[in-house]
């Protein structure tokens, strides 16, 4: 991993793993940590076989995993893990190996010193048509129904000191794979989007920094894929030995990162000393690359001591941060995002190293901390590039504007009068438009928008008949007696308080306010635009009005103030609607439906929504209605009436 030199900061921290012991699988919804319950034996690569371990006389020095550090990248050392699993269930259970960097893994399931099954895995092993993926490898366990089997896992070419190994059911395994596929799909898609975005910027602006950034992101994505085994899975599955040359990839990404830094921070001209230092680091990365390739070609016979990349990475980290701070102090603001991106990357490295050293537990944030850190770093670098592009555009625009200003200044005396006249015309035009807008707003506050449009087009509005309109009447009970106890100003303020609230409620529905007559409030649904749901909307608006009235009454009672009590009546039927007269237009409705709605209000009760038979038939599926019987009304036959209310939430 690029810049893994930070392992020097935490390499001596003590491990904190659980002690070894037998694993009893009783709950298929649980994931069992095999690594923490295992014992470890370090041997010379290939010197100890499974037969040596199963001999009755064998007494090899296995120790709990917390007492032995794995020597990462050391191909001369092999590791045996030993643990016992008792499967109390009758279902198939799997061993899962999360990290894919291990080159060779052999899993032996034994009982009574006999090998029951051998499975060979590893990032450099051919797949042979198996369904497992190299990025998350697994193998089934034979033990079932209380059987206890001893497992031996042999590994060579281990790239990390933390080896997540789990025992889990088929369902848990599939869930784990699906989560992993989703995360990496989003991750690599994000990287691809950043690359395409940077290339588009390069094509449009021809800024070399965007091209270098796109190439660096491409190789960082490849490094992240190598880090999780996705390269051998998707790119060179037929020839997995190529994977070993991935050890040289950190040198490539570091080399590209320095080239991007030199261009982005403009070090060649703004800070020549930093520029020369960066060129020196590029040379060191090239040497590290050649040594890595040579070491792999010689089957690691040069040893680990030839790997200078960790030291170069440490030097690069110091160089990147100090160069960024230096340019930020010089006023280059995009350097701030560059610095933050680097800090997030190093934070991800530190978290991952603490996890691999046993100081932090296995989890999504710890296991994927490097990927998350790289993702945030890439994002901040993209923001920094965008900021830089905007800054360059702004500078160019300012230069162009200065040239234009000089031209305009030369012509100012000639065109000043024309400009003044144009400003006056524009000002007058704006005033006329504002006055027209205010007039239209006042007109729309009086008449429906459809009627206003008709008046504007034809100069008049024809009355129309609507076959199904729902009319709502409200009235204040004992208004005269209550009003006598208030001053005229207080009375008007009280009525205004209620009717403003009613207006607000109507604005939530397709209901037209018709007028107020003293203490009466009249509105209707289904006109001037016809819609079949108007009975339901009007009843729902009435319930909202009633809820407001109740809340207002409670507040006033708590303050010791008097309040109004309202009756509400609703009826559905045909009406004629329109405007009459030539002055002080008012949109009104006529017909027996209006009279019947008034009778519904008059024969209702305070706190109730009284509706007619025709309205009941249209809303009975939406509200709970209680039949009142036939109520005699003035100048009409007795009418069926109902009280409407919301269905109980119980």
UniProtKB/TrEMBL annotation:
Localization in the cell: Membrane
Keywords (A to Z) from UniProt: Coiled coil, Lyase, Membrane, Nucleotide-binding, Transmembrane, Transmembrane helix
Family matches, as SUPFAM superfamilies: Nucleotide cyclase
Coiled coil: 397-445
Keyword tRNA-binding: no
InterPro entries: 7TMR_DISM_rcpt_extracell_dom1 (IPR011623), 7TMR_DISM_rcpt_extracell_dom2 (IPR011622), A/G_cyclase (IPR001054), A/G_cyclase_CS (IPR018297), Cyclic_nucleotide_synthase (IPR050401), Nucleotide_cyclase (IPR029787)
CDD domains membership: CHD (cd07302)
PROSITE patterns attached to this UniProt entry: GUANYLATE_CYCLASE_1, GUANYLATE_CYCLASE_2
Superkingdom to which the source organism belongs: Bacteria
One family name in Pfam for this protein: Guanylate_cyc
Residue ranges of every copy of the Guanylate cyclase domain listed in the record: 470-601
Molecular-function GO terms, alphabetical: adenylate cyclase activity; nucleotide binding
CC per GO annotation: membrane
Any one biological process term the GO annotation gives: cyclic nucleotide biosynthetic process
Transmembrane segments: 182-203, 210-227, 247-265, 277-296, 308-328, 335-355, 370-387
Family to which this protein belongs: Belongs to the adenylyl cyclase class-4/guanylyl cyclase family.
PANTHER family associated with the record: GUANYLATE CYCLASE, GUANYLYL CYCLASE
Protein's recorded name: Guanylate cyclase domain-containing protein
């Amino acid at each position: 991993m690029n810049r893994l030199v930070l392992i020097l900061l935490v390499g001596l921290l003590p491990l904190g793993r659980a002690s070894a012991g037998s694993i009893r699988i009783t709950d298929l919804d649980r994931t069992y940590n095999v690594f923490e319950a295992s014992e470890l034996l370090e041997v010379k690569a290939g010197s100890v076989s499974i037969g040596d371990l199963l001999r009755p006389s064998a007494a090899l020095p296995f120790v709990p995993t917390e007492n032995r550090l794995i020597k990462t990248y050391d191909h001369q050392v092999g590791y045996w893990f030993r643990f016992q699993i008792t499967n109390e269930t009758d279902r198939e259970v799997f061993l899962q190996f999360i990290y894919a960097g291990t080159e060779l893994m052999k899993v032996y399931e034994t009982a009574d010193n006999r090998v029951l099954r051998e499975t060979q895995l590893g990032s450099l092993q051919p797949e042979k048509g198996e369904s497992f993926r190299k990025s998350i490898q697994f193998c089934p366990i034979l033990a079932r129904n209380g059987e206890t089997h001893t497992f031996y896992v042999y590994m060579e070419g281990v790239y990390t000191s933390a080896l997540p190994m789990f025992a889990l059911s088929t369902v848990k395994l599939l869930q784990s794979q699906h989560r992993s596929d989703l995360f990496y799909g989003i991750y690599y898609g994000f990287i691809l989007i950043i690359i395409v975005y940077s290339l588009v910027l390069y094509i449009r602006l021809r800024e070399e920094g965007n091209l270098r950034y796109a190439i660096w992101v491409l190789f960082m994505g490849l490094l992240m894929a190598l880090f999780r085994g996705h390269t051998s899975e998707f790119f060179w599955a037929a020839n997995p030995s190529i994977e070993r040359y991935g050890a040289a990839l950190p040198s490539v990404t570091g080399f590209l990162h320095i080239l991007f830094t030199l261009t982005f921070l403009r070090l060649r001209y703004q800070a020549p000393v930093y520029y020369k230092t960066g060129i020196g680091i590029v040379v060191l990365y090239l040497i590290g690359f050649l040594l890595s390739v040579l070491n792999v070609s010689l089957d690691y016979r040069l040893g680990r001591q030839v790997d200078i990349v960790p030291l170069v990475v440490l030097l690069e980290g110091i160089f990147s941060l100090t160069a960024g701070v230096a340019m930020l102090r010089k006023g280059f603001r995009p350097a701030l995002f560059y610095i933050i991106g680097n800090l997030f990357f190093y934070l991800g490295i530190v978290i991952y190293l603490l996890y691999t050293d046993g100081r932090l537990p296995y989890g999504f944030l710890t296991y994927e901390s490097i990927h998350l850190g790289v993702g945030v770093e890439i994002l901040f670098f993209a923001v920094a590039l965008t900021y830089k592009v905007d800054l360059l555009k702004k500078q160019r625009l300012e230069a162009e504007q200065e040239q234009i200003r000089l031209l305009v200044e030369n012509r100012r005396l000639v065109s000043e009068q024309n400009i003044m006249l144009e400003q006056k015309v524009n000002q007058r035009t704006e005033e006329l438009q504002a006055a027209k807008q205010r007039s239209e707003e006042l007109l729309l506050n009086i008449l429906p928008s459809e009627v206003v449009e008709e008046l504007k087009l034809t100069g008049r509005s024809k009355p129309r008949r609507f076959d199904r309109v729902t009319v709502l009447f409200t009235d204040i009970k004992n208004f005269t007696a209550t009003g006598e106890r208030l001053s005229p100003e207080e009375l008007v303020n009280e009525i205004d308080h209620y009717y403003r609230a009613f207006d607000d409620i109507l604005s939530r529905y397709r209901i037209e306010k018709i007028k107020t007559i003293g203490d009466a409030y009249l509105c209707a649904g289904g006109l001037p635009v016809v819609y079949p749901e108007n009975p339901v909307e009007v009843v729902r608006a009435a319930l909202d009005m009633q809820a407001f009235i109740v809340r207002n009454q409670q507040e006033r009672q708590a303050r010791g103030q008097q309040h109004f009590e309202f009756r509400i009546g609703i009826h559905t039927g045909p009406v004629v609607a329109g405007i009459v007269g030539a002055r002080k237009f008012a949109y009104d409705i006529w017909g027996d439906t209006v009279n019947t709605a008034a009778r519904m209000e008059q024969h209702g009760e305070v706190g109730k929504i009284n509706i007619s038979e025709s309205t009941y038939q249209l809303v009975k599926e939406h509200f709970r209605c209680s039949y009142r019987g036939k109520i005699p009304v003035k100048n009409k036959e007795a009418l069926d009436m109902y009280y409407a209310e919301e269905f109980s939430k119980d």
